[in-house]
Write a structure and sequence with these properties.
α3 (61-84) packs parallel to α5 (118-150) and α5 runs antiparallel to α8. This protein has 232 residues and is mainly α. It folds into two domains: 5-53, no CATH class; 61-231, no CATH class. The protein has helices spanning 25-38, 47-53, 61-84, 88-110, 118-150, 154-176, 181-189, 193-231, and strands at residues 5-6, 9-10.
């Protein structure tokens, strides 16, 4: 039985017997002065109000965006190296898979006050995927435009055009083999350049959605593991 009180203040918890945290008057006065200065002289604030204003587990979204941007910069550097050295593309692919987990680890080491949860891991994974996809897609687009219209290097461009033509020819053959009216309409539409461009854009968008789903899942899993280790 630890139900002992001193001067009206509870020393031990009546339910579990744990010793209670006691705040000194000097520290209480300092907190009130700081909160009064932050509120522009609106009056002293209690320690509970200070905890509500500045929670210790708040997310530093500016730091999260910077960490995700770092992942995008690394992927852009690997893409540049892959233009000169083809084997680097394998390293770039490995970075695409591991980036959501690595970025969460970097953020956790920089901002230790943030409480890592699966939800936050999924959000940071989505930010990382967007940064990587934006950096890689922009760099590849610029490289293709320069090769086709500035450098006029026919080698790689011819290979890409040949692969696309084979894909559309296969689609044309599959649609032509069907006797339905909708298949015939699609066969005619494959001859339109704008329709082909729409198919390519739709495939790129589908790849983005798949990578976002993967990054969110990987980030949530990493956040779950870190939350368990933090509780233990």
């Amino acid at each position: 039985m630890l139900h002992r009180e001193e001067e009206g203040d509870l020393v031990y918890c009546w339910s579990c017997g744990a010793p209670q945290v006691r705040l000194s008057e000097e520290l209480r006065d300092q907190i009130e002065e700081q909160m009064a200065a932050q509120q522009g002289g609106a009056g002293p604030a209690t320690p509970s109000e200070a905890h509500l204003v500045t929670p210790s587990h708040s997310v530093a979204w500016r730091g999260a965006i910077q960490t995700a941007a770092l992942a995008g910069a690394i992927s852009a550097g690997l893409s540049l190296l892959s233009f000169a050295m083809a084997p680097v593309s394998l390293l770039s692919f490995c970075w695409f898979l591991s980036a959501p987990i690595v970025v969460l680890g970097i953020y956790s080491s920089r901002f230790r006050q943030t409480r890592i949860t699966p939800g936050f891991g999924a959000k940071l994974g989505i930010l990382t995927a967007l940064a990587i996809f934006l950096a890689t897609a922009s760099l590849n687009t610029i490289g293709l435009v320069l090769e086709r219209f500035v450098l006029h290097s026919a080698g790689e461009i011819a290979d890409i055009d040949s692969q696309l033509n084979k894909m559309f020819e296969q689609l044309h053959t599959n649609f032509a083999a069907q006797s339905q009216q909708s298949a015939r309409m699609l066969t005619d539409m494959l001859a339109v350049p704008e329709f082909r461009a729409g198919i390519l854009l739709a495939s790129i968008f589908l790849c983005l959605l798949l990578y976002l789903a993967y990054s969110a899942t990987a980030g949530a899993f990493a956040g779950y593991l870190r939350s368990r280790s933090a509780r233990s």
